[in-house]
Amino acid sequence: MAVRTPDPDPNERDDEEGSSRDPLRGLGSSIGRPGSAGNPAWLSDVELAEARRRLPMLYVEAVPVRLDGMGAVTEVGILLRATPMGEISRTIVSGRVRYGETVRDALFRHLENDLGPMAFPMLPPQPAPFTVAEYFPIPGVSAYHDDRQHAVSLAFVVPVTGTCEPRQDALEVTWMSPEEASSDALAAEMEGGRSSLVRQALASVGALR
Description:
209 residues; alpha+beta; 5 helices; globular
């Protein structure tokens, strides 16, 4: 099943005052493009399609986990997501890195978008991915498939300590044991080969038995 990560809204507002968290804001209006709502990180549908035909796209992906008092993973958060085509699938937190945005900021933005503002992800100052996943539009090139594009994804395990209230096209987050999250039954429901990514995530923190 293809990856169907939503594209960001050019008018997205990230704080209570309604100001966009735009890393390049204030650098001059000449950076923006017509129809981009003044946000240089935004691409129109035509621009995005053209970029996807010519360039690998950079993504971040996060496997949310809950830890016990000893730091061991007790639960893994798996999203139930509706695709633009009306399909329902299981997936993890995922999305593009914007131009001018740090990897840490991109991770935080997508975690907040998918899990809600009260999830309280524990992100170190310089997060390190547990692996780099390559998605190809042609099946069989790697374990990961995305029929829209060639995407390079930095994948992270991210502990969360708060209450998760999924937003946007994430319908719910299901907390599973590491055994359930690495099962063949869940793999059959996950998109783009991401079940392999979940297993790698659990192996990287010693939670895969």
